[in-house]
Amino acid sequence: MAGAIPMDASTAQPPARPMRADARRNHDRLVGEARRSFAEHGTDASLEDIARRAGVGIGTLYRHFPNRDALMNAVFQDALCSLLDRSRELAAAEAPCRALVDWLGAIITHAGEYRGLAHSLMSASRDETSALVQCHLPLREAGAGLLRRAQESGSVRDDVSIDDLLQLTNAIALAAEQSPDDPELADRLLRLTLRGLK
């Protein structure tokens, strides 16, 4: 990572040992069941039910994932990779402001797949101890690159920050979640955002 300070060898953590085959199976079943439960019931789905559906006890769940945020972080890694890939695709787009807004729209779409995710991501952005920071920080870095390019092109004001944009994006996703009878709400709010950026 650019700008990272090298760790002293005496303070470096030893590499994690690979999981045993049975532990890997339990891990994968827990993530799969959590993904289904979060999609069906939202991110506040019962962890006990997730463990039961995965065929393990709650203690096994907590050995793999010490808290809900750690489980959510594992569930959302695929989506995170897709969002990061999308940011790289948009990095050379001819219209930098449109690219930034398209990427923010992709975040809103992802957050809309799981009720409660937008709220959790908003909270994680202010809590450096949350496991969801592992999702938030790469998104922040990717978005900062798109924003910087849009600002350098003169299409986005210099006083716009990526932190504000990510909070606004999560707020739009939360508003859309609360208004399921208005499927166009997120798009309308995002278009308003685009006007405000210029």
From TrEMBL:
Organism (species): Streptomyces rubiginosohelvolus
HTH tetR-type domain: residues covered: 24-83
DNA-binding feature ranges: 46-65
InterPro entries named among the record's database cross-references: Homeodomain-like_sf (IPR009057), HTH-type_TetR-like_transc_reg (IPR050109), HTH_TetR (IPR001647), Tet_transcr_reg_TetR-rel_C_sf (IPR036271), TetR_SbtR-like_C (IPR049445)
Pfam families, A to Z: TetR_C_43, TetR_N
Protein name as it appears in the record: TetR/AcrR family transcriptional regulator
SUPFAM superfamilies listed in its UniProt record: Homeodomain-like, Tetracyclin repressor-like, C-terminal domain
Assigned keywords, A-Z: DNA-binding, Transcription, Transcription regulation
Residue ranges of the region described as Disordered: 1-24
